[in-house]
Amino acid sequence: MTSSSTDTRLPGVATEQAIHVVESHSAANYSPLPVVVREGEEAWVWDVEGNRYLDMLAGYGALNFGHRHPALIAAAQEQLERLTLTSRAFHSDQLGVFCTELAELCGMDLVLPMNTGAEAVETALKMARKWGYQVKGIPEGRAKIIVAGGNFHGRTISVISFSDDAVARRGFGPYTPGFVSVSYGDAEQLEAAIDDDTAAVLIEPVQGEGGVVIPPAGYLATVRRLCTRHNILMLADEIQSGLGRTGTTFACDHEGVTPDAYILGKALGGGILPVSAVVSTREALGVFRPGEHGSTFGGNPLASAVGTAVVRLLKEGTYQERSAQLGTHLEALLRALPSEHVSAVRCRGLWAGVDVIGRVGRDVCMGLLRRGVLAKDTHGSTVRLAPPLVVKSAELQWAVEQLAAVLAADDRSDLPPEGISPSAVSPQWRS
Ligand SMILES: *Cc1c(COP(=O)(O)O)cnc(C)c1O
């Protein structure tokens, strides 16, 4: 691998060609920054020109352990040499180990493995409805699930049915009924929405796509109390917030809260392959009988082997500690950014939302790209930072220096990179 000087990146022909090819034959459901990545190691990636970038997005948290963590690659390679898929028609020697160790990490009884995050959310919703009918005694067909405004739980039709993001919803109706939305962080409104047909509350302990929105102190604990009092399942979507991201194994840990189910994904696959799961009690996950739910690839031997290796990394507690300590450092660096450029900083562990003033988040991310930092905007004016937990203190400092430079008024690195044709620049960027 080569590395160049850390200043201005000059996108060249290889970048332009690769972007042209992908834009010719891939659906335009994303608007990527104009960088074509070829290699990665720890917190760094290299593009097809040989330029090096610090990855401050980490695959939206899927790369919590960095690119190609040796223990995870070894687990995958070892399993690749033996067996990759059985389907659930048969047992594999890997699934039991994975479920046992993941359940133990979560302090839960049972695991239902799936692949993507959205599938795990769907699984939790099906579990909650069935539990509502079978265990709680809600009349058939009436189960209600309470969700929070500003949520992001994935892209399936049922999941976007209770999103309030117009772009995610528009044109995809009719929508799945049975969901009630309340303001995120408002426990009183949540309690008012509860009735006899309420089966569950589905909540992100920190809203990631929403811009790293942290609820008011005590909110999660209150939600837990309300769920217990009204016999409702608390479903914590920890797909992005969990597995060390916030400085603890789960974001719920910050308030000493144990939900009735953890919904996990992203980092559970070690940045290697999609692995997701619902981890819950015997009372709740025990409602599923053979044939009622499943997935061809869910819990496959390769996914199980990698998932087990991820759980073992987390069992040591060192990544959570790193995240907490470096998170404090990151927060201090971000809070020192000039207030004329930054209106708010929200930070929990190695996870930050930075609201910029007078700039489009996308343009700031373009500027960061030119300076060798990969980050992604969300909700227009928020820059989200979620580096791999293996990032080093000096690297964080360097990344925030680049952000400061981009935010400085005379910095013009958000201008279109020279040599990039208009077709290589996504429509959203051009507007
Ligand atoms: C990413 C994410 C999902 C969806 O996961 P996919 O693997 O993209 O389907 C669901 N919930 C949260 C909180 C997420 O961050």
UniProtKB/TrEMBL annotation:
Span of the signal peptide: none
Cofactor section: pyridoxal 5'-phosphate
Main enzyme class: transferase
MF (Gene Ontology): identical protein binding; ornithine aminotransferase activity; pyridoxal phosphate binding
GO biological process: one example: L-proline biosynthetic process
Pfam families from the UniProt entry: Aminotran_3
UniProt keyword Transferase present: yes
InterPro entries from the UniProt entry: Aminotrans_3, Aminotrans_3_PPA_site, Class-III_PLP-dep_AT, Orn_aminotrans, PyrdxlP-dep_Trfase, PyrdxlP-dep_Trfase_major, PyrdxlP-dep_Trfase_small
Keyword Amino-acid biosynthesis: yes
Superkingdom as given in the UniProt entry: Bacteria
EC number of the protein: 2.6.1.13
Keyword entries, A-Z: Amino-acid biosynthesis, Aminotransferase, Proline biosynthesis, Pyridoxal phosphate, Transferase
Pathway per the UniProt entry: Amino-acid biosynthesis; L-proline biosynthesis; L-glutamate 5-semialdehyde from L-ornithine: step 1/1
SUPFAM superfamilies associated with the record: PLP-dependent transferases
Family: Belongs to the class-III pyridoxal-phosphate-dependent aminotransferase family.
Protein name stated in the entry: ornithine aminotransferase
Organism listed in the record: Streptomyces sporangiiformans
Gene, per the UniProt record: rocD
